[in-house]
Amino acid sequence: MSGAQPTMGAMVTMGHGDLDQMVWHDAWPRPAPAAGEVLIKVGACGLNNTDVNTRSGWYSKAVTAPTTGGAFEAVNEEDPTWGGAPISFPRIQGADVCGEIVGVGAGVNPGRIGERVITDNWLRDPDDPQDMNKTGYFGSERDGGFAEFTTIPAQNAIAIQSELSDAELATFSCSYSTAEGMLSRANVTKDDTVLVPGASGGVGGALVQLAKRRGARVIAMASKPKHPEVARLGPDRILPRDPDDLRSALGDEKVTVVADIVGGSYWPTLIDVLERGGRYTCSGAIAGPMVNLDLRTFYLRDLTFTGSTIIAPDVTRNLVKYIEAGEIQPALAATYGLRDLRDAQAAFIAKEHTGNIVVLP
């Protein structure tokens, strides 16, 4: 039909709730790049906790349960997302895109067409990129990559030269940038011993690799069936997911940093094994956001706690350099077709795989 808007296949989230809120559309309107933007043909898009938690509304303070991926009985209208504010629906989620630039908007060099890129998912004010209050997230505040095509500001599409597959490259953007942001906030160096709960997940595995890259000693924690896969990431030691006596399990190890995305009831045990002057850094709470803290432990042991969500503008660009240099490796667990995104999220929530799950258009 002449003059009709081009369409594409897309998995569209229609509102907060259970997996059935994700609906497949064969002919969703294909976006066109606005000024300063690029159009990407999506080769692969990774799945992460932000996709699940935003769809379910888990970020709302009305929710105190662990991440379940299902609908919650009550979700506040005013704070259901990572940024504590509503988003508009329908919304195409998915932040971790690897693909090819196939179009550019006004003001973007046409020579970028044909570039293979991965996405920097933090949408910053170009006039004030350091202001966290002016920051959004790809696949949340604007449509993302669970579709055949997507648009993003040109500065957020980072060219990459790599022999890795699109699926492998789609594992990096969220998990590895989140991990690098946590390690940066905690100022991890070669003098540290870093304890990583949940090391079998996407962010946990990235924490292991990136902490080792910094020269730190790394102790990973994961369920025993997943130890062989975790071992491939190169930790110095692997412990069970939740030892009854963590201090004894650690032996003579002196933990200076806990890099945590788990939280939950085991959290006080993690804090108790930190050395005096140690640091705790957090970017998740999949086992539950409500924890018990003895403030005496916090201040008498001179501990430092840092939250980590919005990363510095150079983090993803540095990750590209590490990838191209072969300094970090993808932890691709499984791929699913985009139409099967519900199944992919169900597997992700059930922790059926070790590493990252990616969907392919």
What does this structure look like?
The structure is a single chain. With 361 residues, the protein is of the alpha/beta class. The protein has two domains: 196 residues, Alpha-Beta Complex (Quinone Oxidoreductase, Chain A, domain 1); 129 residues, 3-Layer(aba) Sandwich (Rossmann fold), CATH 3.40.50.720. The chain is 22% helix and 26% strand. It contains ten helices and 17 strands. Strands 3, 4, 5, 8, 9, 16 and 17 form a seven-stranded mixed β-sheet that branches. Strands 12-11-10-13-14-15 form a six-stranded parallel β-sheet. It has a two-stranded antiparallel ribbon with strand order 1-2. Strand 1 and strand 2 form a beta hairpin. Helix 3 crosses helix 4. The two termini are 24 Å apart. The mean pLDDT is 96.
Would you spell out the secondary-structure blueprint of this structure?
Layout: E1 7-13, E2 22-29, E3 37-47, H1 49-56, E4 96-104, E5 116-119, E6 122-123, E7 136-137, E8 149-153, E9 157-159, H2 166-169, H3 173-185, E10 193-196, H4 202-213, E11 217-221, H5 227-231, E12 237-239, H6 246-250, E13 255-260, H7 267-272, E14 274-282, H8 295-300, E15 304-307, H9 315-324, E16 332-337, H10 341-349, E17 356-360
Parallel strand pairs: 10-11, 10-13, 11-12, 13-14, 14-15, 16-17
Antiparallel strand pairs: 1-2, 3-4, 3-8, 3-17, 4-5, 5-9, 6-7
